[in-house]
Design goal:
This protein is an alpha/beta fold and about 325 residues long. It has 10 helices and 12 strands. Pfam families: DDAH_eukar.
Length: about 325
């Protein structure tokens, strides 16, 4: 996670992120202080559940340009159980400043016992319109080596192919589709309308255009997961698609991170469904980080799948080693 010391309304990303809202009469300092308070509580709640949280503080290093969205760290890098760390071509200039912290983040991983075998750019040079914003743009089914991606100005199909090449066959299937929000535009990121856990998936099928909708639903159903369908209002108003299943390193139990507004947005039946797959931990980010930044709990979490040579196998960051319910034979 990245401490939001620069947090503010990001004018550059607001052009296609309709989830962002201008702060109501508050100055930058006040907004930032509230974001920091929300962030610290999130970290405390995760650690209380035994989730290991590594925090990046050195966000100002190597740049004088502010990075107001740095708290949403899942958008510029990804890590993989092969020891690979990838960096991505982001759509806005001030978000590209975050990628300049690559070596700092690599050092942070290694200091915490993770093995970074290689760091690779998905593309060497950013071309106008050819963007891919990591696990914001992609929702990855690690158990089935499948990548789901809602195409948008920030999620380019050509760069998705480059991601598959960069991971050298680790992911074997790409499921792309078009979406339409209530604003008449594509969803800016896939992970605000879709989430995949080890045993479940949350999907805003209403957001997928009719020609693609059933194909995506059928694909998720074929994995043996319980598919929880949410409405367009649940996705747009409450961020119910922006959740992430995590594993406690201390207990081995699953937890599901989401915002407080997201928890309120789910129906009782849906909350009960989710609680069957892990303890719900709700982040108090709805008033500042979520409302102003236009991203929620999942966006704040950069997953670490890197190998950890000295860790026990039980707590490996490869989901495949965890005890799971029976799934179809191909998995």
């Amino acid at each position: 996670m990245v401490r939001p010391i620069d947090f503010d309304f990001n004018e550059q990303t607001a052009k296609d992120n309709h989830f962002q809202n201008q702060p109501d009469g508050e100055d930058n300092r006040s907004v930032n202080e509230k974001a920091m308070e929300e962030f610290e509580i999130c970290v405390e709640e995760l650690r209380a559940e035994g989730v290991e949280v590594i925090i990046l503080d050195e966000i100002h290093a190597q740049s004088r340009i502010k990075t107001p969205d740095a708290v949403f760290c899942n958008n510029w890098f990804s890590t993989h159980n092969t020891g690979l760390m990838l960096t991505y071509p982001l759509a806005t200039q001030n978000r590209r400043e975050e990628v300049k912290k690559t070596e700092i983040v690599r050092d942070l991983f290694e200091k915490n016992g993770f093995a970074v075998i290689d760091v690779v750019k998905v593309v060497d040079n950013i071309t106008e319109g050819e963007y891919l914003e990591s696990t914001g743009s992609m929702v990855i089914d690690h158990l089935n080596a499948t990548v789901y991606a809602a195409l948008s100005a920030r999620t380019n199909e050509k760069v998705l192919q480059k991601f598959l090449e960069a991971t050298d066959g680790q992911y074997t299937e790409l499921v792309t589709f078009d979406t339409l929000s209530s604003h008449g535009q594509p969803f800016y990121h896939t992970n605000v309308m879709m989430s995949i856990g080890a045993q479940f998936a949350v999907l805003c099928a209403e957001a997928i255009v009719e020609k693609d909708r059933q194909r995506v639903i059928d694909k998720l159903n074929s994995t043996g997961r319980e598919v929880i369908l949410i409405t367009l209002d649940q996705a747009e108003t409450y961020f119910c698609g922006n959740i992430l299943q995590l594993k406690s390193r201390e207990t081995g139990n699953f937890i599901i991170a989401m915002s407080e507004s997201c928890l309120r947005g789910f129906t009782k039946e849906q909350r009960d469904q989710l609680r069957a797959f892990g303890k719900v931990v709700s982040f108090p980010v709805s008033k500042t980080i979520e409302f102003i930044g236009g991203g929620s709990a999942r966006c704040m979490l950069g997953e670490i799948f890197l190998p950890r040579p000295n860790a026990s196998r039980r707590y490996s960051h490869d989901l495949r080693v965890f005890p799971l319910p029976e799934l179809p034979e191909q998995q």
